[in-house]
Design goal:
The structure holds two protein chains of two kinds.
Chain A: H1 2-26, H2 33-37, H3 44-53, H4 60-72, H5 86-121, H6 126-140, H7 143-156, H8 168-177, E1 193-196, E2 199-201, H9 206-239, H10 242-250, H11 254-292, H12 297-306, H13 310-338
Antiparallel strand pairs in A: 1-2
Chain B: H1 2-16, E1 30-35, H2 50-59, E2 64-66, E3 72-74, E4 77-84, E5 87-92, H3 106-116, E6 129-136, E7 139-144, H4 151-155, E8 197-203, E9 207-212, E10 227-232, H5 236-244, E11 250-251, H6 259-264, E12 268-283, H7 294-303, H8 306-313, E13 318-320, H9 342-351, E14 358-365, H10 372-384, E15 388-395, H11 397-406, E16 411-416, H12 423-431, H13 451-460, H14 466-483, E17 487-499, E18 502-503, E19 520-521
Parallel strand pairs in B: 1-10, 1-11, 14-15, 14-16
Antiparallel strand pairs in B: 2-3, 4-5, 5-7, 6-7, 8-9, 9-10, 11-17, 12-16, 12-17, 13-17, 18-19
The chains are: A mainly alpha, B alpha+beta.
Chain lengths: 349, 526
């Protein structure tokens, strides 16, 4: 176990190293940060002075060595835009992103398991077919569009006038399909509760939760269909297996067979995929956070790219690399709990 | 795939077609703003940008400011007179206090001008100013090294800072007055101005809160906004959605694709203003020999249909241009209108010996100006008609300027707003013969050089008789038009949108700095 964790730690360090080299190597293609810092009429000589002061004229290896030396001491450089240490900037934006990912994960778990299991048990029922149909659409619609449509329907509001207003049923249908909007369309709201340090939470107030709903739903919309289908497929396979047949033959109640015997084995591959997907979801927050102006890491990263804020970009990429390693490690640990035959050792078993 | 497309189409169709927008509710006298960007810093001299100048107009006041019609309106300076050719005497308003409680005196103005001359961003603009002196508590004399007609234009950039507040040392021992680019200086974290609003809370990139300054000097202003919450929303669609959903009351930079939607929506009003930013192309004469021939340059201009671009591509969100100076500027010459004549363009190409045409590379940004990449695409297609084959590359802003600076392409798109709100500025940066020493022609991508125009504009810039000066600048515009040293496309418009009751129309202007101190909100209580 300890050997396993140490090995993962080494992984994380290796990942950070590789990412930092790559990020540094591409920085010339990210644009000129000085351009973003000065007005249009600032003469070249002034620009050159600033470039010199930030050490942007030094050769790649010199710049990297300077960065690496500081980084080992926990100093990842200063964000040009925020005028603060990059790590602090990221730490400030991290809670917003983690809350968003947490809320989306919660939605995915709450919906995918029951729906997946149901449509595996009753694959031919109309409800199952409906769910499968919707999930196909869900997989196909890009998160950007989902977000915009959600904003239009639930934040701005729509008034449907497709049906004849003069008839009773038409008015009723129009009314039924119209929405009032009123859901917040951007930001985290102004009613946040401070938990500890720079972690302000959306989860403690009604207003905060309202702000969280639309971004979380649109972030979840990418993964939810995937998981529904995955759970359904796995469950159907498990239901065909010998031990389930035996359990049924033995006369154990169907409920117990489904939810105790079958579900446990269904979840094994789901957890593996899920762990990797949570990492991917952190990446998807870039889109979701941009549309909803959610002040998390994703939005911060996109802004940093637009401003060629190189120290922030490099640090962000390294942190995301670490997040991937950490989630994978946690997944492996959970895997060990669910399936005791898996051994966590430093060496291949 | 077809299923997906049909369903998708019906979802969008249902959302877009069968809908109108619902009214909103809002709280009283708090203005919630959604701008594309928030101020980069709190030190108004650290960076010259639109966002910073907007902030300057909130927390500070200029000596004079522009009206909607490009006239000067007294603010902290109440009177001014030219004492001699190089000296202007300005009288300051009495009884003005800074947010710190200190009173504004002439010393503060002198201190501010001296600091401006230290600022990397403002140094070049304030080059003509030799010195400033406090004659008494409320009189300042500004001396220029040579006769300079644009001193009042510069005075719109002088936002007096609280010299007592910004003097001395911080606890860490650094100078409170120092200007540190993208660093953590005292002035970038602390503010004391004379302006209508005080910052109460600021989380960079997330929100800025202001409240009205109780001792604000301008008691005659009808402005009744007591609190401002500014949220930066960079994504165009999200900013518009925030306004339509009632999340904010006032937004800037409404994208052209949403203009119809916003103007038709209930409960919000669209405010469109003719802008002053010229969008155009520069031809690289160093790389393409043909561009050294005025006939070829004119053919390029003739082949481009400015009216069509402004009407169709920009959907009327631009005014087609035949010169740098928009209406209202000193050098605006009403005779110079956009030219479009394909036949004549072909003739000129033939005369110059390029009937067969040639190939060029073109670069353009894709997120800087309104519809920039599409405009470049349209221009490429138009040039194909006179056998100029364009290979277009578009790129995001952060990569565009470094690429632009290398001057390694044949045509480049540029948009320019004159910091001085004056015609001469366009020439000095865009078409002056390039000179690394003096910095002239810093953005003259194509190394176009016409010394006659340069001389005329330079003379105009020391001509203090404004009538005569305007005449000279109009002449310069005509010469450039004739010589086609720059391909003009249009002046890009500005668009704001505000919720009902937010009377933004009177306080916005072509300079793009809304005077929010004077904003009146009339919310009906229903």
């Amino acid at each position: 176990m300890i050997a396993f964790l140490i090995k993962r730690l080494m992984h994380a360090i290796l990942v950070m190293f590789v990412i930092s080299v790559l990020a540094f190597a591409i920085q010339d293609n990210l644009g000129d940060p000085v351009q973003q810092m000065v007005g249009q009429s600032v003469p070249e000589s002034e620009r050159e002075e600033i470039r010199e002061r930030f050490g942007l004229n030094d050769p790649f290896l010199v710049q990297y060595a300077r960065f690496a030396k500081n980084a080992v001491q926990g100093d990842f450089g200063y964000s040009y835009f925020y005028r603060e240490p990059a790590l602090e900037v990221i730490a400030r934006h991290l809670p917003a992103t983690l809350e968003l990912v947490f809320a989306a994960t919660l939605i995915i778990v709450l919906f995918s398991v029951p729906i997946g299991v149901y449509s595996a048990i009753k694959p031919r029922s109309p409800i199952s077919r409906l769910f499968m149909g919707i999930s196909i659409i869900g997989i196909s619609i890009p998160v950007f569009l989902t977000a915009i449509v959600l904003i239009q329907i639930f934040a701005i509001g729509v008034t449907v006038t497709l049906f004849p207003e003069s008839t009773g049923w038409g008015a009723w249908l129009n009314d039924f399909f119209s929405t009032e909007g009123n859901m917040p369309s951007f930001g985290r709201g102004y009613d946040l509760v401070n938990v500890v340090g720079n972690w302000d939470t959306n989860l403690a107030t009604w207003n905060g939760l309202q702000h969280l709903v639309l971004p979380a739903v649109s972030l979840a919309s990418i993964m939810l269909p995937l998981f529904i289908r995955l759970i359904r497929a796995e469950m159907m396979e498990v239901l065909q297996s010998e031990y389930v047949k035996y359990a049924r033959a033995k006369g154990i109640s169907m409920r117990r067979v489904y939810f105790v015997h079958a579900l446990k084995n269904t979840m094994l591959p789901v957890i593996t995929v899920g762990g990797v997907q949570i990492g991917t979801m952190v990446a998807y927050t870039i889109l979701t956070e941009t549309v909803f102006q959610w002040p998390g890491m994703g939005l911060m990263f996109l802004d940093a790219i637009n401003r060629a804020d190189i120290p922030l970009i490099v640090t962000y990429l390294m942190i995301v690399g670490v997040i991937f390693v950490v989630t994978n490690t946690i997944v492996d640990l959970i895997y060990g709990l669910v399936n005791p035959t898996v051994k966590l050792t430093g060496k291949p078993a | 795939m077809t299923l997906k497309k049909t369903l998708l189409a019906s979802v969008i169709g249902a959302v877009v077609a069968g809908t109108t927008l619902l009214p909103m509710t809002a709280s009283a006298e708090t203005l919630r703003i959604g701008y594309a960007a928030d101020p980069e810093t709190l030190d108004i001299h650290e960076q010259l940008s639109g966002g910073m100048l907007r902030f300057s107009h909130l927390a500070f006041d200029p000596l004079v400011r522009w009206t909607k019609d490009f006239e000067f309106e007294p603010r902290l300076a109440t009177e001014w007179e030219q004492v001699d050719e190089t000296t202007m005497r300005m009288t300051l308003r009495e009884g003005v206090t800074f947010h710190s409680g200190n009173e504004l005196t002439a010393e503060d103005v002198v201190w501010t001008i001296e600091r401006l001359k230290e600022s990397p961003d403002y140094r070049a603009i304030f080059e003509p100013v030799a010195s400033a002196e406090a004659v008494d508590d409320y009189t300042v004399e500004i001396v220029t090294s040579e006769p300079y007609p644009l001193l009042l234009n510069l005075a719109t950039y002088i936002f007096p800072m609280d010299s007592k507040f910004y003097s001395g040392e911080t606890d860490e021992g650094s100078d409170k007055a120092e200007i540190v680019k993208a660093g953590n200086s005292y002035a970038s974290r602390n503010v004391s101005g004379t302006g209508p609003f005080i910052i109460t809370d600021r989380r960079q990139g997330v929100r800025v809160d202001f409240k009205r300054f109780e001792d604000y000097w301008d008691t005659e202003s009808e402005g009744n906004v007591t609190d401002i919450v500014l949220t930066p929303i960079a994504e165009n669609a999200s900013r518009v959605a925030a306004l339509l959903s009632g999340g904010v009351d006032f937004i800037d930079a409404v994208p052209p694709n949403d203009l119809d939607r916003v103007s038709e929506a209930d409960g919000v009003n669209l405010i469109e203003i003719d802008g002053t930013r010229i969008i155009g192309f520069q031809m690289n004469e160093e790389r393409v020999e043909a561009f050294q021939d005025a006939r070829v340059r004119q053919a390029v201009d003739l082949a481009i249909n400015q009216e069509a671009i402004a009407d169709r591509l920009m959907r009327g969100f631009a005014n087609p241009a035949g010169q740098f100076s928009p209406e209202g500027y000193s050098g605006h010459n009403p005779d110079l209108t956009p030219r479009y004549d394909i036949e004549r363009a072909k003739e000129l190409m033939a005369e110059a010996g390029y009937e067969e045409g040639f190939s060029v590379e073109m670069i353009a940004p894709n997120n800087r100006y309104v519809n920039d990449a599409q405009i470049a695409q349209a221009v490429s297609n138009m040039l194909a008609q006179i056998n100029i084959n364009v290979e277009l590359r578009t790129m995001p802003l952060a990569q565009y300027w470094p690429e632009y600076d290398t001057r390694q392409s044949d045509m480049a798109m540029i948009g320019w707003h004159a910091d001085t709100e004056d015609s001469a500025n366009f020439f000095q940066y865009l078409t002056f013969c390039f000179d690394e020493e003096t910095g002239a022609g810093q953005y003259n991508y194509g190394s176009y050089c016409n010394e006659e125009i340069d001389t005329l504009v330079t003379e105009a810039d020391s001509e203090t008789d404004l009538e005569k000066r305007n005449e000279m600048l109009r002449e310069a515009e005509a010469m450039l038009y004739e010589d086609t040293g720059f391909i003009m496309l249009h002046w890009q418009n500005l668009a704001y949108a505000a919720a009902d009751g937010v009377e933004a129309e009177p306080i916005v202007n072509a300079i793009d700095f809304p005077y929010l101190g004077d904003l009146v909100i009339n919310r009906s209580d229903d």
